[in-house]
Amino acid sequence: MVEIVVLVVVAAGLCGWLYNVLGRRTGHEQSFSKPAEVSSAVAAQPNAALLIPATEEKKREEVVQPEAWDGIRRIVSRDAHFDLTVFIEGAKDAYGKILEAFWQNDRKKLVDMVSKEVLEAFELVMGKREADGDHLENRLVNIDKAMVQKAGVDGDNAIITVSYDAWISTMLRNKEGVMIAGSSTDALPTHDVWTFSRNIKQEPKTSWLLVETLAAS
Predict the structure, then answer these.
(1) What is the fold, at CATH topology level, of the domain defined by 2-26+53-215?
(2) Closest to 166 in 3D by CA, of 94, 58, 83
(3) Confidence check: pLDDT of 22 > 80
């Protein structure tokens, strides 16, 4: 029963390769930056070209909470390589890879993706699962939304909190292979809040690491 409860919290609740997908420009994306200042002469002239296109504005609203924009700007001012679009896509990728590694008790992969504290919390669940002979057959079906809730800089560390709305198929088998929890056909809605952190001063740039997991309220 403890196994099932903790599993739901984690499922409901990166080090070299992760830097390649989180917060790094590839040359094909438009970088997120502060808008250039407009001279008074230009500002006095109403010009539709100066306005943010409605589609772009809507796209931004879908990936960042309004209260997180100041934090995003602080990160951009300290890290010229940061790209919001790349980060969001990388955060989605990280979500699936970290969950998959946790479900498969793959400590070698987890050590490059999560902080020491998160790994220790995962270890408690994985160790119990192995001791009981249980085996997870979970599957991430879809991520409906990944949105930045909070962002900022603490010392030399960029910190970004992402909320996920996803669907996960969960199935737990005991050592005899009998399914003791979950379903082989149904997926359940999952709401997680994960916080990632990366040192933005150290060169070469360090990886983004998962430093906290919470179940969204």
Answers:
(1) Nuclear Transport Factor 2; Chain: A, (3.10.450)
(2) 94
(3) no
